[in-house]
Every structure is written in C-alpha cells, then in structure tokens.
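Sharing a chain and its predicted structure for anyone who wants a worked example. Both blocks are below, sequence first, tokens second.
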Amino acid sequence: MNARTSWIVLVVLFVCVSTVTAQDVLFSTEDRFDATDPRGLDGGAEDTYQVRVEEGTLIEVIVRSIDVDTYIAARFPDGGTVENDDYDGRNAGFLRQITTTGTMEIAVSPLFADEEGAYEIIVRQAGPFETISSGDRVNGELIAGLKGRRAARYQLTGRPGTSVVIDLISDDFDAYLQIVDSRGQEYSNDDGGGMFNSRLSYDFSEEETITVVATSLGGDETGRYELSVAERTITVEAEYRGVLAESDERAYDGTLYDVYEYEGSAGSTIGFAVESDDFDTVVYVANPDGTNLGRDDDGGGGTNSRLDVTLPENGTYRIYVVALYGTTGEYRLTIYR
C-alpha cells in the first residue's frame, strides 16, 4: 500500500444484503475534503470507508468531484490492494472481481494535498454483462447522458491453455481496453492496436470467465466502436534478461532505458512482454522510421507490461524497456508471435 494511505478506524460500515441486482449500489455518500478531516501521510485530507463485499461479485468504486482531482486506495479482504487517480476523467475509481468475502477498506483524498472540496463516493455491484466469445465481432456505442464513466462490459470464458487477442477500434474516440480476470487482476491498454485503438492479449491458465471493458481513455467520450476477440497460438521467438542501471542510456527527459531490435514483417502480429520484481515496467515499440508504434504500462498484469501490435511494414523495430518511476533493477523481455 502506498505511503499516502493511513488506515484510520472509521466511519461507515455497510453490510450488503444477500440478493443484489445488477448495478445495485452497495454504498454511497457525499462529503467534502477540508481542514477538519483526518490527515493522510502526505498531509492532505483523507476519509476512510469500510464496505462489506461478497466473493464472486464484480465491484465498481468511483469517487466523483467537480472541485478536486480525486485519489483512491483500497485494500481487499484477500489482502490485495489497488490505487488509482483517473478512472473516470479526473475521478478516481476501479473495477475489481472480489475473491474473498469480507470488508473492503477504502481511503479517498484529493490528489494534491492542499486541495479542498465536495465529493461523492459510490460503491456498486456491476453486471451481469453481455457475453462475448472467441471469433466474435460486436459493434456498440458509448452514449451521452450516462452519469459517470461511459463503458461497455462483456464477459468472456476461455479454456485452459488457450490465448486470445482482443481489439477495440473506434473512429470516434481514443479507445481504452481493460480486462479484469477471475482473481481481480487488472490489465489495460491504450494504443496497442495502432493509432488510437487498443489491443490486449490474455492467456487462460484455467477455465475462467474474465470481464472485458470497452471505454475511452478518459472515460467520458462518446461514439461507436467495434470489439473483436480472436484465438491465437503463441510461439516465443526470443527472451532477454537485463538490468536497468544508472549507467544505461537516458532519454531526453533523463529516463533510463534499454533498447532491443526486432526484424519484423508487414502484417505480423507480435507481442512484447516485460516483467520485473524490482520496478514498474513500461514497454515502447518504435517503427523503423523511429515513430511510436505502441506503448504499454500494465498490460501484463500488476506492474508488468505487455504490448501486442500488428507490424505495418518490413524493417527493424526498436523495443524500449523503461521503469515508470525511473528506478533500476532486473527484468525479462519476451518476444512472441
């Protein structure tokens, strides 16, 4: 848990009933951040809530405010944590599959310690959602008039040992694709599908149902989209083990990076995965002319990166391994098709 969060004995305890319908609100309240609030470790106002959640439910939490840029940190009954700044525009939040019945602890605060203002927090059980299967291609629309984040959610069931690639394409908005697996792990991608389109791959290690979220980068855009799922066979082409060190090359902004080259063919779909126990990874892929083809932060789950792209031309592509916060440490880069 980030040092921003101090768990203060609190305030609100809500016990949900045994039958909850789709999109039912489990807990909501309005409050404000001001000088009378408890202080977080960063010195800013912080309110803490406790909400009872049930195993197997999909929970969405949003902290909305027109006065401040909100921040949220939560701890789940299984010990897992999540932190978020901008889930719905400047509003913080998250979507999480609950794996253990118990109390979810939520700490909310302004992103900047000196901010004050009113906010609303909503905790609700989401779903059930429309189902989608490998080989499907569906068209939908994110529409105006909805309160909060505009998103379409689907459930996808897979068999052990299979892998799928999911594409979200739109001419109307900057596509943003998310996956929440059955253990509550979140994966996300912004521009892995080229231009403003998104692409994520997922490997099923067991039979499970995952949630696929089609939305826009800020969560507030509208327009039509196409979502497709295709099964794919993965073959590892190369694996590298490296270390980001203070002696490595630095970008124009001072960021440390390692770079690798890949000889690619037009039309090939190639994946690049970076994993590290030492730092929060980011992977960039550059076209042969040096322009950006794709970037990913947490598409590999947790703080790992995974980017799947379709190569637009023959040539030498460059893969950059970066630490999100400029830290150092060991990592593994895997290239697969």
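Comments welcome. The CA atoms of residues 44 and 113 lie 4 Å apart.
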